[in-house]
Design a protein that fits this description.
With 469 residues, the chain is α/β, with parallel strands linked by helices. Helix content is 38%, strand content 20%. Residues 139-143, 148, 166, 168-169, 198, 201-202, 205, 216-218, 221, 224-225, 239-242, 273, 370, 372, 398, 438, 443 line the site of nicotinamide-adenine-dinucleotide.
Length: 469
């Protein structure tokens, strides 16, 4: 197992900002509030480091495999810190770290071909040679800080780029620690983490030294990032919000799938881009589905992520809790019925009871927008066409799922969903080897698998005449 130089986070002087534990609502630590003017030097160093890093694919593989080992060794430090600032149960933090190490290994070993011949019948020998882009900027949200950081840096670095990555100010600490663990296994300045408030992200996205901006977050911020990157015409990859529908078919066995469906909606407190955010049930099964989900919502153990009994942690931050409360209140004002939850818990921290809403007007924002929290509306449908039309009837198109006993029939319905990934009888499971791309406003560009690697490369073509015989 490779060792890393050190994973001590360097102590910086200067301004710092408080990081809040969502289980208490109180600050528990601080992170550096870096000034956007620091980016010139940071991006400059990333550019200088790129010239060596890009040159030797074998050395990259070895270094990234060493980084994966180092992440696992650091798991016992990373997991509690992640839970403390993000809120998720500790076991899920460990899963996130395992996934981070696995992704590093996957991309370390996934190499693009050195060259590919082009044959089109002309007397020219053409060859594509894949080239890295240069310094890449990554900006990520607070729901899966480590997993999403690695989704950015593993393919970018494997492709021969360097990276400057900015986590959310709600979750800077575990990402800084991860960054120092990974960076210690790599040459200097190949990966740099910067932390701070806006306009740090905006300045990073529009920095003239950046060749590719890869962003994960909300649609509105994604649009701002794309506008910023347009200044230097940097390439842009956007992984944005989702409002995934789950369509239950007439032949679904409700009790058999209810646990899976519930956790597909509520894992990480519903703060998953591709969580189930709306459930469509046939009118005949409607009450049964509502009741099955409500029973589970009432039984779930909600608490601090560090408590070993906890199944569901708090919402990550106060503005997000406010959004969840206001979507719920508006739906209730419009006639929705609260079948489980529906309110904040009477304790410190950002806890919201797991909530199932029935009889929700289909144009209520909790249905048409992304609630990104522990609240799920269940809607009845008459005909299957109606259900598919409703599922496709938003600007989002990240994922969707179809649940039923006849798998061929379910797959035929899944084919009709306008989204990047459609699941049958489950939801939100991804393979490292698959392309991950939203349709409509859920994203631009492709991450994951070899598509993710090529997204960090550019084709460079050499033409030369065939040798004369
Ligand atoms: P957000 O858009 O508010 O913030 C995302 C990041 O952008 C943060 O680091 C933030 O500090 C930064 N940022 C804010 N303003 C910026 C600006 N003007 N320029 C550049 N950067 C800026 O999103 P959030 O609330 O942190 O995360 C939740 C959203 O992320 C949800 O919509 C969720 O669906 C989405 N998400 C998508 C995926 C995916 O793969 N499609 C994965 C996870 C989360």
């Amino acid at each position: 197992m490779a060792t890393h130089r050190s994973h001590q986070v360097p102590v910086l002087v200067g301004k710092r900002f408080a990081v809040v534990d969502p289980a208490t609502g109180e600050p528990f630590d601080e992170a550096p509030d870096q000034h956007p003017d620091e980016l010139d030097a940071v991006v400059g160093r990333a550019h200088a480091a790129w010239h060596t890093w890009r040159a030797d694919p074998g050395a990259r593989t070895t270094a990234l495999l060493g980084a994966a080992d180092a992440v696992e060794v650091a798991g016992a430090d990373l997991a509690p810190l992640l839970t403390r600032e993000q809120g998720k149960p500790l076991a899920e933090s460990y899963q996130e770290i395992a996934r981070t190490a696995a992704r590093l290994r996957y991309f370390a070993e996934l190499t693009a071909p050195q060259s590919q011949p082009i044959t089109d019948g002309r007397p020219v020998r053409g060859e594509v040679r894949w080239r890295p882009l240069g310094p890449v900027a990554a900006i990520i949200p607070w729901n899966f800080p480590l997993q999403l950081a690695s989704a950015k840096f593993a393919p970018a670095l494997a492709a021969g780029n360097t990276m400057v990555l900015k986590p959310s100010p709600f979750t800077p600490l575990a990402t800084r620690l991860l960054g120092s663990v990974v960076a210690a296994a790599l040459p200097d300045d190949v990966l740099t983490i910067v932390t701070g408030h806006e306009p740090l992200g905006a300045r990073l996205a529009s920095h003239p030294g950046i060749r590719h901006v890869t962003f994960t977050g909300s649609i509105t911020t994604g649009q701002a990032v794309a506008r910023g990157a347009a200044a230097s015409l940097a390439r842009v990859t956007l992984e944005l919000g989702g409002n995934d529908a789950a369509i239950l078919l007439e032949d679904v066995e409700v009790e058999r799938i209810a646990d899976r469906l519930f956790w597909a909606a509520f894992r990480n407190c519903g703060q998953v881009c591709m969580a189930v955010k709306r459930v469509y049930a046939p009118a005949r099964l409607y009450s049964h589905v509502v009741e099955a989900l409500a029973q589970r919502a009432k039984a779930v153990v909600v608490g601090a992520g560090l408590d070993p009994d906890t199944q569901l942690g708090p919402v990550n931050n106060a503005p997000q809790l406010g959004r969840v409360e206001s979507y719920t209140a508006q739906a209730v004002a419009e006639g929705a019925r609260v079948v489980a939850g529906g309110r904040r818990l009477d304790r410190p921290g950002y806890f919201f009871a797991p909530t199932i809403l029935a009889d929700v007007p289909p144009d209520s924002p909790v249905v048409t927008e992304e609630q990104f929290g522990p609240v799920v509306p269940v809607l009845p449908y008459g005909s299957l066409d109606e259900a598919v039309e409703a599922a496709n009837g938003t600007n989002f198109g990240l994922g969707g799922s179809v649940w039923g006993s006849d798998l061929d029939r379910a797959e035929a319905v899944a084919e009709r969903l306008e989204c990047g990934t459609a699941w049958i009888n489950h939801h939100a499971e991804l393979s490292l080897a698959q392309p991950f791309a939203g349709s409509k406003r859920s994203g631009v560009g492709v991450a994951g698998g070899s598509w993710g690697l090529y997204g960090n490369l550019r084709p460079f073509v050499v033409h030369r005449p065939q040798e004369e015989a």
